[in-house]
Specification:
The two termini are 19 Å apart. This protein has 451 residues and is α/β, with parallel strands linked by helices. It has helices spanning 19-30, 45-56, 101-111, 132-140, 175-185, 203-210, 246-258, 277-284, 329-338, 358-368, 410-421, 442-449, and strands spanning 2-3, 10-14, 33-41, 60-65, 76-83, 95-96, 117-121, 144-147, 156-159, 167-169, 192-195, 214-217, 226-230, 239-241, 263-270, 288-297, 300-308, 316-317, 340-345, 373-375, 380-385, 402-404, 427-429. Strand 10, helix 5 (175-185) and strand 11 (192-195) form a beta-alpha-beta unit. The chain has two domains: 2-16 and 243-449, Enolpyruvate transferase domain (UDP-n-acetylglucosamine1-carboxyvinyl-transferase, Chain), CATH 3.65.10.10; 19-230, Enolpyruvate transferase domain (UDP-n-acetylglucosamine1-carboxyvinyl-transferase, Chain, Alpha-beta prism), CATH 3.65.10. It binds shikimate-3-phosphate. Shikimate-3-phosphate binds next to helix 5.
């Protein structure tokens, strides 16, 4: 895909449903009593992998495409016919989480409570990602879970059964690990207390309590965030609407700020404070960003966002700010290259174990485009070129054109596409199919904004 520099971006986008929330709605719906109706479900490859796994576990799930009736409407409604906590059946084949870390890690928590054996695997990228982080707590809870590899990677074999509540201090701030342990906690004999080094996204906690689970947040003595889940409740199917994904909105936030003479409105974006790091960074960098029409969608806050072309300044990003923007660091790095002054990113070692080693890939690609950037163990320092350069298409003097290999990583493909909008020459992204992981219509939505 060849991305040409743009003169301006104008208009509005309704970004697709939140990926994290879509996965969780399917999983909680599956283990609830009664039906769950999900509006605004993200019909992307990752979330479809969750549906596929759940169907193989005996759950009936109907996906209704809105655009069968209205070509303008690309959203989907999903009905999950809940089986209750103990109604899943042993799958005949190995489950395939494909590219989705959320599918494998959250589902493992549920499988840990089932009285049968499941094998679960994934694609080439997912097979490289660390699973020790879930093997350890689930084993402590009494689940038999093992990897067939020396590096504790996929495939996993999980034989569930009676579990014990544990107190678990995770070394990583990971919502996938937290959610895995909380879901297993539904099946334990005693309460489970999960403590994390910094607060990761809390969609599982919010949704679990909406479905009737008994849990509460509890900070530990050192001030670390934690959650206690009490077993023994029945989950009840719900009707819910998935907010737009702020991680998908992030590309248009950046595009609107960086492209000249631009204004973009993004409708219905989830702004949960465990996800809104990108908004905080944009404000710290001096970007023009307004959140209007702030409201609640179930237990999740949403807003419409308006962004305008802005001159940005460099900033420092680290510590507890990392989890609420972990998936946005590739696009933040692109913004940083266009800012005045240096941007320092630290404490982001988790980026090395995402769909690709994102730290390495960001540094290599920015360098290839002519940006001065230094990789550190857990981050990078980006020398911003400033936007003093004339704001004329093809004359910004920030990125030169070139060819970028996104390494089958959707977030790299979209982040470097945005760089292409403000580069001096076109940027070709080799193989953009990977955007289907989280945002199948990304390029159509982008094209509609191009003046
Ligand atoms: C996710 C949590 C994050 C994030 C991923 C989705 C989730 O991963 O990067 O895209 O839905 O829980 P970690 O929990 O590993 O940080």
């Amino acid at each position: 895909m060849k991305i040409e520099p743009v003169r301006a971006l104008r208009g509005s986008v309704t970004v697709p449903g939140d990926k994290s929330i879509s996965h969780r709605a399917i999983m909680l719906g599956a283990i609830s009593e009664g039906d769950t109706r999900i509006e605004g479900f993200l019909r992307s490859a990752d979330c479809l992998a969750t549906i596929d796994c759940m169907r193989r576990l005996g759950v009936m799930i109907d996906v209704i495409d809105r655009n069968e009736y209205d070509p303008e409407d690309t959203s989907s409604v999903v009905i999950v016919r809940g089986k209750g906590l103990h109604g899943l059946r042993e799958p005949r084949q190995t489950l395939d989480a494909m590219n989705s870390g959320t599918t494998v890690r959250l589902l493992s928590g549920i499988l840990a409570g089932q009285p049968f054996t499941t094998q679960i695997t994934g694609d080439r990228s997912l097979k490289k990602r660390p699973m020790k982080r879930i093997i350890q707590p689930l084993s402590e809870m009494g689940c038999r879970i093992s990897s067939q590899t020396a590096t504790d990677t996929l495939p996993l074999t999980i034989t569930g059964g009676e579990l014990h509540g544990i107190q678990y201090r995770s070394a990583v701030a990971s919502a996938q690990v937290k959610s895995c342990v909380l879901l297993a906690g539904l099946y334990a004999q005693e309460p489970t207390y999960y403590i994390e080094p910094a607060l990761s996204r809390n969609h599982t906690e919010l949704m679990l309590s909406a479905f009737g689970a008994n849990l509460k947040t509890k900070t530990d003595r050192e001030g670390r965030p934690g959650v206690i889940i009490y077993p023994g409740t029945i989950l009840r199917g719900q009707s819910l609407t998935v907010p737009g994904d702020i991680s998908s909105a992030a590309y248009f936030i950046a595009a609107g700020l960086l492209a000249p003479h631009s204004e973009i409105t993004l409708y219905n974006v989830g702004i949960n404070e465990t996800r809104d790091g990108i908004l905080r960074v944009v404000r710290a960098m001096g970007g023009s960003l307004r959140a209007v029409n702030v409201r609640m969608e179930g237990r999740e806050p949403v807003a419409d966002l308006i962004v305008r072309s802005s001159s940005l300044t460099g900033t420092t990003i680290g510590g507890s700010l990392i989890p609420p923007l972990i998936d946005e660091l590739p696009i933040i790095a692109v913004m940083a290259a266009c800012a005045e002054g240096d941007t320092v990113i630290r404490d982001a070692g988790e980026l090395r174990v995402k769909e690709s080693d994102r730290l390495k890939a960001i540094v290599e690609n920015l360098t290839a485009l002519g940006v001065t950037v230094r990789e550190t163990e857990t981050g990078m320092v980006i020398e911003g070129k400033g936007v003093k350069a004339r704001r004329r298409p093809g004359r910004m003097g920030i990125f030169k054109g070139g060819v970028i290999d996104p390494l089958d990583d959707h977030r790299l493909a979209m982040a470097f596409s945005v760089a292409g909008l403000v580069a001096d020459d076109p940027i070709t992204i080799t193989n953009t199919d990977c955007v289907g992981i989280s945002y199948p219509d990304f390029y159509e939505d982008l094209a509609a904004l191009t003046v």
